[in-house]
Hints:
77 residues, CATH 2.40.150.20, 5 strands, 44% strand
Amino acid sequence: MIQVETNLEVADNSGARRIQCIKVLGGSKRRYASVGDVIVVTIKEAIPRGRVKKGVTAIATIDSTSDTIAIILFYPF
């Protein structure tokens, strides 16, 4: 289960290495996200010449909860 302020590893080629959940989408009082759910994240660590930069807010989906891995859908705000 993923909740707010959980650090996640990224499993795509967007250039982000580590992200942090800042909101679980899908309800006003929803606390946890699991596989397939959509969350709002911020990029905490990125590779130097990647598509995303540190500090950017994006939307991601949860790919695996045992390894806390997410895939960025990348819709910057």
